[in-house]
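Example 215.
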Amino acid sequence: MFIVTDLCFCEYTDHGHCGILDPKTQTVDNDKTLEISAQQALVHARAGADMIAPSGMMDGIIHTLRTALDENGFENLPIMAYSTKFASAYYGPFRDVAESTPSFGDRRTYQMNPANRLEALEESLQDEKEGADILMVKPALAFMDVIRDIRNESNLPICAYNVSGEYAMLKHAGAAGLIDYERVMIETLTGFKRAGADLIITYHAKEACELLNKK
Ligand SMILES: [Zn+2]
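Predicted structure in complex with zinc ion:
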């Protein structure tokens, strides 16, 4: 098994935000969060992670982690950047299960505006410059043009993150008899590939594998 660890703090904070809060502004203090992110990366590395995937998306996180890993003997440990991560309503089902909805405010200070195509590209290219080994677009379904934009500008592998709300829509529509679930699932996953994704993270993974193995 190849183990990829999700590096973030929102699962461990009572306020649900992805790092240390600035008491004055009640928003995440980017630089303080970078410091503890480097510590968390070393914990993951020493525990045996094969790849580290920082999901919190602080500015400069890739550079910070790359430096910390290199300085501590983990030069060969790859980083998958959540390089283009939108502030999206598609995360809804996961947040409910993980109870990770912030208790106040939202993540819009460090996640991206879904309307901003150029920023979406720029954020990923910035992470490539900082040393990312894999780039990502999250969510995937409403952002296929962004996957293609990045594909055209970078030679790194690109991961499409097919999130819980995207999965739930297909599941519920299938259960209601509105769509042919299996065909729509494969069509959706194929769309990610066509857009330029090399990797797909999806809740459909097991079902898709079973289906593809049958054929
Ligand atoms: Zn987080």
